[in-house]
Amino acid sequence: MARQLVILCVLFAIASAKHFAPRDLIDEATRQLEELKQIVHGDILVAHDDLSDAAMAFNIYANTVLKESIVSLQEEAETIHAQLQTIKDLGHAAGKDISTCTKGREPHLLRLPGHYAEAITNCTRGLMGEAGALAKNAKYIVDITINQVHHLEHQLANCKGEILCISPLITEIELGKIRLPQNIKTEVQATQSVLTTLKISSQSCGNDHVAEYTTEATSILGDITACVNRIIP
């Protein structure tokens, strides 16, 4: 009989709790929720700054690499043109007409630097556009983190002051103070990591195209040289 009385008392307490919410519990939930909102808002602003800085740093780096690559390309072109001029001087000194060797090849050779400079520029600009898009997308992902706070606000409103509804919600809010800032931080770090990888790609824009230019130009110069060698004994 005593046991049944205890059970009835517990059930009565639970039933009463559903309709009675101490003011301090509601205030605590509201306070913690506002604190979470401020934390997330602050972290979002910091994340925006970090992402903007990362994108800007990439653009500066890529522009520097672009300029250096164009200089390298010009230096390679000057070397090739100097070798071409030496071949033409040899033909002139030998009194031989080597125009048949240079007629179709020299104009193409002279156009190559411009072609590859444009390719390097397009490649680099493309990566800069990609970096900007990555930063923009990351900012969006960071921004919508606040939606989870709004969802908690909606849940609190729906609790209608019931203790059994508010208590677990406070726990969820406390967990949010750890989880949401970490989610924001993870997104920023992931984007920064991708931008670091893009820096390597920007180097390839220059290195690969300069190497391609040198290979193609050297091949054309080799054809001219072989042709001239057949004319000059």
UniProtKB/TrEMBL annotation:
Q: What is this protein called?
A: Protein TsetseEP domain-containing protein
Report the superkingdom from the record: Eukaryota
- Signal peptide (residue range): 1-17
Q: Which UniProt keywords are present, listed alphabetically? A: Signal
